[in-house]
Amino acid sequence: MPGSIVLGQNRTGTEALIDLPELLATRLLVQGNSGSGKSHLLRRLLEQTASLVQQVIVDPEGDFVTLADKYNHLVIDTDTQTEASLRTAGERARMHRASVILNLEHSEPDAQLRAVGAFLAGMFETPRAYWYPVLIVVDEAQLFAPVAGGDTSDEARRLSLSAMTNLMCRGRKRGMAGIIATQRLAKLAKNVAAEASNFLMGRTFLDIDMSRAADLLGMERRAAEAFRDLDRGQFMALGPALCRRPQRIKIGPVETASHAGGPELVPLEQPNLPPEELREMILQAPTEPPPRPRREPTAPKPDLITQLDHYGAQRSADEQATQATEENTPDPAQLWQIIADMVSETDAGYRPFATLYQDFQLRARLNGLPRTVLNMERFRRLLGTIRSGIDRERAQSAEWHDIEERANRLPDDMQAVFFLLARAAMDGLPCPDDAALARAYGTHSLGRARRQLHYLEECEAIILQTQGRQRRVAIIGPGWQTASD
Hints:
Helix content: 40-55%
Region (Disordered): 285-304
Domain AAA+ ATPase: 24-214
InterPro entries: AAA+_ATPase (IPR003593), ATPase_Atu1862_pred (IPR014588), HerA-like (IPR008571), HerA_central (IPR002789), P-loop_NTPase (IPR027417)
Strand content: 15-25%
Shape: elongated
Strand order of the largest sheet: 2-1-11-10-9-3-8-7-4-6-5
CATH topology of the largest domain: Rossmann fold
Number of helices: 18
Largest sheet: 11 strands, mixed
CATH class of the largest domain: Alpha Beta
Structural class: alpha/beta
Protein name: GMP reductase
Number of strands: 13
Radius of gyration: 28 Å
Distance between the termini: 39 Å
């Protein structure tokens, strides 16, 4: 399937794929006891998608900071930041499309919750123009969306839980795809876990967690004990981005490693000291630490916001340089074909615009084109033109360019309907029926689709004439009219 990455292998030895555009639209839940391979799975997923989509990693233990060495992620140590700066940083990260690792390793538990709540809130409140696709990976998600209170304050817990709920429940329309990993489903807030449509369930031993995992995967309760037999790095997969039936997969290798290695068994060597000397050595009074050497003052490091602005400026310069040095100038026919292939898919008419734009960016990268080959405005215009049914040669005519200019004066969500009506009027075809208007508008509601005709008339883009059940539409400006339906 287009836009897929290799996650590992299934039982038959064939590649286990995950559909990235579908993952961006449907979210992912990873569960497994400590040592089951969750961090390895997340690292594999992050490495495979690092060059395809922006990433934000909530890292409570500092396990993923090594990704920055290879993929140039921006590491933010939360212990040196305020809530206000983190909130602003979350917004700036989306605006500049910076891949970020939120390192919580040196923060206290209460401060961790506040930091995550502030950063995700900033990302969530970013203006619509910057709703680019982003993978947000939250490791140990039960810490930030707990079922019950713990040692942290109620206020900090509410801030974090609210941000996590927004991420999983309302983030999709904003391009925010949540990937949450937890050791125990029983400790994770249900309204957060329930929004995921894709599942990767690793080794689990407690009955309550096995039963809940089996329920999420649609497995029978008697088959739940299979989770105890999974090896490290093996997961049961299910979901629209993974597979339609539960399937056991083995996660593939990774290129980077965590700073913290696993425990290794070493021989125990007994000290060759008498018990009295050993006791005196261990219990001797602590010595005063030597005074720290005086350090020469250094220039202060730029603050986080300055770093993000510099990252964005550097990224823009790099992208412009990439476009300027691109050996193969993007062929308009190639762009037209990529979008036409998307439009031809069965459910394309009802997918959100943000999801379609994500899909287009991924397909463009897979075809060797830069991510910025089309901005959102140009993509929306070309998408509406292709959806109208006009061919590419006629779309380059002066008459259609005039239609595009008129569409630019309309709200974004009404342009596709206007293109559909203009094409029908240009060819003297009957006015499109309610179902065609609904597909162009991206809704299943025929009544809502009909109302767009009145909105376009109020915007002085068309003239609507109705007689009984028949209706005709005239395009203001060119004067084209549809035939009676």
